[in-house]
Amino acid sequence: PRPDLAATLKGQTQVVRDVMLSVKQPPENFRPVGRLVTKADIDEYFPQARSKALFMLDSSKNLEYSVSRHPSKRIGDLTGVQWFYYISYLLQAHTEQIGRIKADPGYPKS
User: Fold this and answer.
1) What distance in Å separates the CA atoms of residue 6 and residue 63, rounded to the nearest whole number?
2) How far apart are CA 4 and CA 8, in angstroms?
3) 57: which residues sit within 8 A by CB, 6+ positions away?
4) Is 18 left (phi over 0), alpha (psi -120 to 50) or beta?
5) How far apart are CA 3 and CA 67, in angstroms?
6) DSSP class of 76
7) What's the start-to-end Cα distance of the chain, in Å?
8) Backbone dihedral angles phi then psi of residue 69, each to the nearest 5 degrees
9) CA atoms of 12 and 72, how far apart (whole Å)
10) Under a CB-based contact definition with an 8 Å cutoff, are residues 6 and 67 in contact?
């Protein structure tokens, strides 16, 4: 835990929101490649990831003071709490992306 560093990251949640909701295509190095290929892969991965995130949220006492670096230089260091905001904004960005894909005239109607 780094209370001194966490204090300097107060405005970082807004940066995360702005970055995540403005990105229309992720940089090449952030695109999944061959990881979640089948529906079975997805059905297995997301419940496990959610369980891990909820466990971390429930078991951590110092999320505000634990700091980890995001791989994107635009985002930088985030507290544990800000990582949960990041996940939320990422979900929102993906939901909007799915909406744009489904609204495309070439998207199958059934």
Assistant:
1) 10
2) 7
3) 63, 84
4) alpha
5) 9
6) -
7) 51
8) -85, 130
9) 13
10) yes
Residues whose CB falls within 8 Å of the CB of residue 23, separated by 6 or more in sequence, listed in order: 93
Residue-wise pLDDT for 66-75, tens only, equals 788 888 888 8
* pLDDT per residue as tens digits for the range 57-105: 787 777 777 788 888 888 888 888 888 888 888 888 888 888 888 888 8
17: which 2 tokens?
A: 């929101």
- Residue given tokens 């949220």 in the structure block: 57
- Please tell me whether residue 79 adopts helix, strand or coil conformation: strand
Is 0.70 surpassed by the pTM of this model? no
Q: Counting Cβ atoms within 10 Å, is residue 67 exposed (0-12), middle (13-18) or buried (19+)?
A: buried
Contacts of 64 (CB under 8 A, 6+ apart): 6, 79, 80, 81
Q: Which residues are CB-neighbours of 3 under 8 A, at least 6 positions away?
A: 65
Q: Residue with structure tokens 């994107």?
A: 72
